[in-house]
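Shipment paperwork, digital attachment
Item: protein structure file
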Amino acid sequence: YSGYYALNVTDTLNPQYLWRIGGGTLLNSSTQAPYIGDPWGKMIPGKVFINGQERWVGFVGAGYNATDCAGGGSCDSRGKGFFIVDLKDGVVLKSFTLADDAMMKFSFPATAAIVDWDNDGFIDTAYMGDLGGNLWRFKLCTKADGSSCSESSWQATLLYDSSSGVIRPIYTMPAAAVDGAGNSWIYWGTGDKSDPTAPNAQEKLYALKDNNRTRRSRRIWRRCLLYHVFTSGEQTLRTDGCCVPLWDTVHLWSRRISRGEKHGHRTGDRVVPRRIDRTGCLYLGYLCNHKQRRRRACTV
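Attachment content:
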């Protein structure tokens, strides 16, 4: 059974059932219910701005399903979506699913990162990865948008497209931070929770600068990996010559996760917990595959 429950725990000795989402409950039977998978991720609460009023909502991915819809034709639609729910009654205010966007071919078992980029007191952006290694951005209303902005104005963008090359899944929550120059960065890593000891996986840690959030286009980056971190001041990015950014406001870098050597190609180590960025430092935890019988520390 797949579903999410809400309880009122104001009185911790006498919790009250409020609502649940799942099956045919509080979901449209044709446009929403078919996209609910196994509830692996957490529902993250946040305050949003709708028609000039504040509303408390929950952000949640559609959940886990092992199959994808990348091959075209009929497929298992479970897990292919993202939902924003009114926490008062469980009503889905907005859903983004495979039915709305043909690029949502993979499940969303992770947990969303929510951000108030302009510090107006309202969540204006959510980020979430999928099992296809893609990163999605969900843009909401800001206070500056005024009372005419509603849930119908909310939009989903495929922020990072991982459709080419070796696809590795994203199961964890991204992290968001602003650097000393005022740039907005999103950090995330890959790693397979369903098979955490696979010996041949090559996982990566990514960082993407998302300064231009006013554009409405779907893709702001085509497949490109920058294997070296930026230099002092974040002005120079070294690449492997794969491509250039579509817009000069967007930059991406990634590092392989390896063991025992600075730029090694040993496989089997993966990001498992979420990343946290504070005071200019990036902290992450990940699982070292000791089946390779090398007991040295993992490195990035």
